[in-house]
């Protein structure tokens, strides 16, 4: 499988997550305050909640329901109640296209 277009870079708002679905995998795509694009699994491992509806601060995405924050770089939860990480995917930018391969998890 090769990387697929998830969205346009111009669709992303800084410090906001966008939910996309590729090959049946829900992904939160985030443009952080430094202009870096991240792609992590969109489902909170604590409560089956969409992380894209949460809050972006620095390099974290916080679940709106129970407050677990996940690292955008590693997918690891930074506080309770979540204790399981979410997957992090490699992102490639090609012009205005944000490309993600759901079969390639980012090594951290």
UniProtKB/TrEMBL annotation:
PANTHER family: 3-PHENYLPROPIONATE_CINNAMIC ACID DIOXYGENASE FERREDOXIN SUBUNIT, FERREDOXIN-RELATED. This is 3-phenylpropionate/trans-cinnamate dioxygenase ferredoxin subunit. It holds the Pfam family Rieske. One of its GO terms (molecular function) is metal ion binding. Transmembrane segments: none annotated. The lineage of its organism: Bacteria, Bacillati, Actinomycetota, Actinomycetes, Micrococcales. Keywords: 2Fe-2S, Dioxygenase, Iron, Iron-sulfur, Metal-binding, Oxidoreductase. Residues 4-100 form the Rieske domain.
């Amino acid at each position: 499988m090769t990387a697929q277009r998830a969205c346009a870079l111009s669709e992303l708002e800084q410090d906001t997550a966008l939910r996309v679905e590729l090959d049946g995998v829900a992904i939160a795509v985030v443009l952080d305050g430094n202009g870096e694009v991240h792609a992590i699994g969109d489902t909170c491992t604590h409560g089956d909640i969409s992380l894209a509806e949460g809050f972006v601060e620095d390099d974290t995405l916080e679940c709106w329901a129970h407050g677990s924050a996940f690292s955008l770089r590693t997918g690891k939860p930074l506080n309770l109640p979540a204790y399981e990480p979410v997957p992090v995917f490699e992102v490639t930018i090609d012009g205005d296209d944000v490309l993600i391969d759901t079969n390639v998890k980012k090594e951290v």
